[in-house]
Amino acid sequence: MSGDFVDQIFIRAKQLLLSLLPGAPDWLLEIASSVINIAALLGAFLTLFALISVLERKILARIQNRYGPNRVGPYGLLQPVADGIKMLIKEDIVPMRADKLLHFLAPIMIAATAILALGVIPYGRNMTPFAIDGGILFFFAVGSTTELAVFMAGWGSNNKFSMLGAMRAIAQMISYELPLIITTLPVVMVVGSLSPDSIVAAQSNYSLGLVPHWFVLTPWGAAAFMLFFVSGLVESNRTPFDVPEGESEIVAGHMTEYSGFKYATFFMAEYFGMFAVSGLAVTLFLGGWHAPISALQIIPSYVWFFAKLSALLFVYIWIRGTLPRTRIDQIMNFAWKFMLPMAFTCIIAAAVWHYEGRRLAGWLWSFGLIAVVHFGLSRLLDTGKKFAPRTYRFAE
Amino acid sequence: MSAVAFVLISILTLAGALAAATLPRLIHAALSLVVTFLGMAAFFFLLGAEFVGLVQVFVYVGAVAVLIVFTILLTRRDIEKDRGFNWSGAVIAIAVFTGLIWAILRTPTLAMVAPQIPPLTVRRIGEVLMTGFVWPLQCVGLLLTAALIGALILVREEKR
């Protein structure tokens, strides 16, 4: 019983807060409830953002064999506070020839869309801030407006680096939106619902109390999860797909002309986008807030969710510390020639798995299907190039 | 509550449309059109058609608006000079508006009470698309594939 109390402690806190408004009309209660949800969401994710920004620097430092931030506070944990103050007191520079309105609106819009996308993810039992029937669709609809915000930043700055960065960003975001959405389709198809809550509920059972029924443990789910993760990496403009802000070529891409707090807002939006895509990956494939073993269900649901989220974020940072930047044409080819056909295969494999009665036969069939298509695609796309001395076409 | 929401969304949508028609800089006009698209989506939400509203945002803001913006970006830059008042455009707009108002006023069904229909769920849309409308769906699919292949052929020209 006490486990249940801890699990629902945030829901109870909210109800307690709402009961401070006795006799209020329904619409006021509705608005108050929304405001509490928004405040909780922002509070939780701004804290996570601060933590992750310092952890990322720590982990990268560890990978590169150095110390990382360790001056402010214990283990450098207060570094984000110092960074925030620094960003706030920096001068806000707006280029003279810039489109002032678009230049001003772009960071606001990009942060707003990232925060909206976070709203539909179930963070724990009864803990979905904005529970609507088409939650998955809402996520992608909101996510697709990010491109406009990036364009506004690039155009509004009136700078060729900004514009080039924005065009690269939009090109790769549009290309990878397709695999991102198509890899969620098998899950939506198998569950038969677009609501994140029912997708999490569909993964709630355990075989023998040990093996959770997460979709990542099926062949199509594993393939779709990997494709989704890579697409998410591109969508959040992270290394190795960070050509939109490649420092060595175009300064900082669409953020070149931003300084001070506006730049910090872009930075925050990038992290929020990363949280949102990882959160959706956890919801779709990693069983949402369910425990990995049924015996561990006494640990509150939100702890599990954030544990899985942190694990995914660690992989993001790990990849950033490990891989070099890819070229834009390599990214595009990969999207259209490999990711997209594989994503379609996942749909068919999920259908086979479903109609074979979700048993071992279906498991093997869908595994075989994905393996055959993967092998065929790899052979087809293998250009057979041996690594010869590099020739330069344009820079001679 | 919903009446207040209706008025607010209407003001936003109409302001966006007006700005899209009048702003001198084409890029600002295109982005004001996005506000109008969002207002339309909000109307669908208000009417309980969640799916249609989300698809509106998805298709119009996510794809059509980006297409418009890119078209402006990649075509011309000398678009910011004032061309004066467009009389023929105004006449056409007024004619369309009068026609619509005339049709609306003559429609008797406005007084009818809306019939109670089951809520439009995604599942129901899927069933209808896969049964009654499967041929139109396939035709649209074929059309889009043809468009995609056509675009690829246009782009591949330089290789020869």
What are its keywords?
heterodimer, A: 396 residues, mainly alpha, 2 strands, 66% helix, 1% strand, B: 160 residues, 2 domains, globular
Please tell me the total number of domains of chain A. Answer: 1
State the CATH architecture of the largest domain in chain B.
Answer: Up-down Bundle
Number of strands of chain B: 0
Which residue ranges of chain B are poorly predicted, with pLDDT under 50 across at least 5 consecutive positions?
A: none
**How far is it from the N-terminal to the C-terminal residue of chain A, by CA?**
74 Å
Summarize the main sheet of chain A: 2 strands, antiparallel
Low-confidence runs of chain A (pLDDT<50, min 5 residues)? none
Structural class of chain A: mainly alpha
State the shape of chain B. Answer: globular
- DSSP, total strands of chain A: 2
Radius of gyration based on Cα positions of chain B: 20 Å
Number of helices of chain B: 6
Q: What is the CATH topology descriptor of the largest domain in chain B?
A: Four Helix Bundle (Hemerythrin (Met), subunit A)
How would you explain this protein's 3D organization?
The complex is a heterodimer of chains A (396) and B (160). Chain A is mainly alpha-helical and 396 residues long. Chain A has helices at residues 2-7, 9-18, 26-63, 79-89, 100-118, 135-144, 146-157, 160-191, 196-201, 219-235, 247-250, 260-285, 301-322, 328-355, 360-381, and strands at residues 206-207, 211-212. A two-stranded antiparallel sheet of chain A has the order 1-2. In chain A, strand 1 and strand 2 form a beta hairpin. Chain A is globular, with a radius of gyration of 23 Å. The model of chain A has no long low-confidence stretch (mean pLDDT 84). By secondary structure, chain B is mainly α. In chain B, helix 1 runs antiparallel to helix 2 (26-46) and helix 2 runs antiparallel to helix 3 (50-74). Classes of the chains: A mainly alpha (396), B mainly alpha (160). At the A-B interface, helix 6, helix 7 and helix 8 of A face helix 2 and helix 3 of B.
